[in-house]
Amino acid sequence: MIMHTISDPQAPAMEAPTGIQLSLSQVSKVFPGKRGMFNRQSSPDFVAIDEVSLDIEHNTFVTIIGPSGCGKSTLLNIIGGLSEATTGTVTMDNQPVTGPGPDRGMVFQNYALMPWMTVAGNIGFAVETVYPKLSKARIKQIVSENIELVDLIGAERKYPHELSGGMRQRVGIARALAINPKVLLMDEPFGALDALTRGYLQEEIERIWEQHRKTVIMITHSIDEALLLSDKIVMMTRGPAAKIAQILDVPFPRPRDRNSVEHHPAYDGLRTEMEAHLYRETRYVEQSRIQAKDRSSNTDTSKDDLL
Ligand SMILES: Nc1ncnc2c1ncn2[C@@H]1O[C@H](COP(=O)(O)OP(=O)(O)OP(=O)(O)O)[C@@H](O)[C@H]1O
Ligand SMILES: [Mg+2]
């Protein structure tokens, strides 16, 4: 029998924590503009997100949705400690987040696997890096458990280039789960997948989440994905200076499947509200783009006239 120690990633929690786990207080991110020599060809600073405050409770599944380019990844990267907030604070379990850490596991859209390592190698390497004191046997066991969890048995010795997109994303999810983070952060994890694989993996995530309830923050562009998986949906405004427009509570009972969710009396209302928000914000962004294009082509014409 294997004894769990505190430094063991799969050690059972003493008791299920409750209350606020992650707290964002007035978080803003400003990307500095380019400074040309003698101030020529300079561009202004860009305020991506503006004073975003958000409290996330333990073991909730939160999705973030908003128009393209509004600042979703920027916000997630700040929570993950991969990027620093310009102003404001992020705390996890009342401790300030100052950089990346094993308490926050990341799953990326482009998988970010190491191509020279097998499936088992990629997962094992992550566990070994975070928990260097674990025995080889224990690491092997954690790798097998997580490979089983994401349904990849038989693919252990394959390299990333030998896998489909869906399988690569399963490895990414297994790798993040293997270090047993307190919070799982996922940036459009199914964005690169075909519709069928995507639908299948969404249901897999729901199944895994039922088994290992933990806090998840996931970015998505899919209304149906958000409704299937979330307890709360954070809807962001368009950028620049994006904010949280509204947070929706999703009341569907768990465990869920697509069919039961779609037949819930609250489904149509929530879907319509999300569609209206996204349509409104995206239409504004597109109109601004067209106007900017018109302005620049008018400027080009006047330049031509001068020649
Ligand atoms: N390193 C950077 N330097 C300057 N601007 C940046 C940088 N990273 C992001 N931005 C800008 O910040 C804004 C938000 O970008 P972000 O990638 O967070 O958007 P997003 O909501 O994740 O978009 P998408 O849905 O397309 O993934 C964009 O206008 C982007 O151009
Ligand atoms: Mg993004």
Compact overview of the structure:
The chain has 307 residues and is of the alpha/beta class.
Return residue spans where pLDDT drops below 50 for at least 5 consecutive residues: 1-6, 301-307
Anisotropy-based shape: globular
Percent of residues in helical segments?
Answer: 25-40%
Bound molecules: adenosine-5'-triphosphate, magnesium ion
In CATH's first tier, which class of the domain at 20-103 and 181-306 applies?
Alpha Beta
Please explain how this structure is put together.
Helix 2 crosses helix 3, helix 2 (119-130) packs parallel to helix 4 (165-178) and helix 3 (136-149) packs across helix 4. By secondary structure, the chain is α/β, with parallel strands linked by helices. The relative contact order is 0.15. It has a domain at 20-103 and 181-306: Rossmann fold (3-Layer(aba) Sandwich), CATH 3.40.50. Strand 4 and strand 5 (95-96) form a beta hairpin. The chain has eight helices and ten strands. The protein has helices spanning 72-80, 119-130, 136-149, 165-178, 195-211, 223-229, 258-262, 267-306, and strands spanning 20-31, 46-57, 61-65, 87-92, 95-96, 104-107, 183-187, 215-219, 232-236, 244-249. The strands form two sheets. The chain has a six-stranded mixed beta sheet, sandwiched between helices. A four-stranded antiparallel beta sheet has the order 2-1-4-5, covered by helices on one side. It starts with 19 loop residues before the first strand and ends with a helix. Bound molecules: adenosine-5'-triphosphate (ATP) and magnesium ion. Residues 22-263 form the ABC transporter domain. It is a peripheral membrane protein. Belongs to the ABC transporter superfamily. Nitrate/nitrite/cyanate uptake transporter (NitT) (TC 3.A.1.16) family. GO terms for molecular function: ATP binding; ATP hydrolysis activity; nitrate transmembrane transporter activity. InterPro entries: AAA+_ATPase, ABC_transporter-like_ATP-bd, ABC_transporter-like_CS, ABC_transporter_ATP-bind, NO3_transporter_ATP-bd-like, P-loop_NTPase.
